[in-house]
């Protein structure tokens, strides 16, 4: 089974001045995230990549482009989740044809399915692909939450191999303690990554790794894995203000602004998201 690594970056989608995908900057961003920030894998067209405002055609083009440009230097994970099971089934099938290494499926938003509906949604999508599938539980965005029991039930499906959890630490701990050996838990929140690892998480699917990937990797692999908890904690405390400021605006507003400010012209965001106001922009700049 594929190991997606300890630090996965949820990659932003670069846009040009006309709001279209900027392919040159997409290539540059992939190079930067892999070579300079040491990302093990990239999520393409996840919610940080503004998947709600990307067309299916744009998503498939992004998947194929990322696979070709990464050229085996990292794993490419396609964000194909939505709140329409049939739509996600079709997009997942097409994504597999693009050569991606895995699939990320966000919990269906707005419909508010119950736990049985959530189980059947993920089960149905996983059944149409041979690729490894990562669940994405983010209740603050979707208004529904995968329970521990439902997650463990899904973990028994062979190609559902991980979950990205933006959930309380006790939920992460319970999943990690009871899941099959092949099933990994990733923190979906940079600020909780180190505490999550302390209770059994395997790694982090990160936004801040666009800016501090080397330090996050050092915190996780060099220090925490080797039992140097004091140094891991020191780095976590040092990075915490950055983790927090990146989510004071709706994601990915702040991280795109920060990338632009640090010499990586990824452009702005698509409506209904808007750029940071001056006060927000000043605060972001103060942490760079």
**Unreliable segments of 5+ consecutive residues:** none
- Largest sheet strand order: 1-2-3-4-5-6-7-8
- Could you state the order of secondary-structure elements as H and E? EHEHEHEHEHHEHEHEHHHH
Shape: globular
If you average the pLDDT, what whole number results?
A: 97
Sheet having the most strands: 8 strands, parallel, barrel
Q: Which range best describes the helical content: under 10%, 10-25%, 25-40%, 40-55%, 55-70% or over 70%?
A: 40-55%
Explain this structure.
It is globular, with a radius of gyration of 18 Å. Strand 7, helix 8 (193-198) and strand 8 form a beta-alpha-beta unit. The protein has helices spanning 23-36, 56-70, 85-97, 115-126, 139-142, 148-154, 169-178, 193-198, 209-224, 229-245, 253-261, 278-286; strands at residues 7-10, 41-44, 75-79, 102-106, 133-137, 160-165, 184-187, 203-206. The protein has an eight-stranded parallel β-barrel, surrounded by five helices. The protein starts with 6 loop residues before the first strand and ends with a helix. It has twelve helices and eight strands. By secondary structure, the protein is of the alpha/beta class. It comes from Paenibacillus timonensis. Keywords: Amino-acid biosynthesis, Cytoplasm, Diaminopimelate biosynthesis, Lyase, Lysine biosynthesis, Schiff base. One of its GO terms (molecular function) is 4-hydroxy-tetrahydrodipicolinate synthase activity. It is an enzyme of class 4 (lyase). Pathway: Amino-acid biosynthesis; L-lysine biosynthesis via DAP pathway; (S)-tetrahydrodipicolinate from L-aspartate: step 3/4.
